[in-house]
Amino acid sequence: MQNNSIFKYRFWYAFVLFFFVFSYSSISMRGETKKNTKQIYKEIKYPTPNIDHNAINTVEGVILHHTAEPTVEKSLSVLTSTKKKVGTHVVIDTDGTRYIMASPETVTYHAGLSVLNGKTGCNYFTIGIEFQGNTLEKPLTQDQINSAIEYLKPLISKYKIPLRNIVSHEMIRKAYMKKYPRKRCSGKVDITPTEYMRFMNALKVALNITVHM
Question: Which class is 43-206 in CATH?
Fold first, then answer.
């Protein structure tokens, strides 16, 4: 009888210990997941009036721009001006702060005359990202790259955006001129090819895609 009591005691002790360890591990894992998915960069809502209220953005791609303005305040002023009528979805400052100007499914006027993979009117199926600054003068900061990736990763997953549809403004402008050589198109120089490739390589690493240098 005594041996049976000791066996039962040891059995329940082992069961309680196992339950405690399992529960603690589960809580720790949940806490770690929450920690890993915590947003790093600050977001500030700064709506632009320059949108198409009668259309829905189908979110098939992303266009990368630079603002070419000296300060983020000036950039935000331009992108909310009802005279210029240009907009975007997000502006990313040099410290990584994101100014959210429109939701992804809103159509904003950021692409102009444009063609992406043979399809015209990129405003209606792409997200516009504006990096504060001028990449012809200074490269993107690491915070800008990291913040843009933090912003884009869930959108790439949600809308199944292929990497071939993440391009620079200059790329869609040149594609337009190639498709419509007789039409006039602004010669605005945007984010440089070097900075575009630098960003795309960082994005591929973040998405666990092999980078071919």
Answer: alpha beta
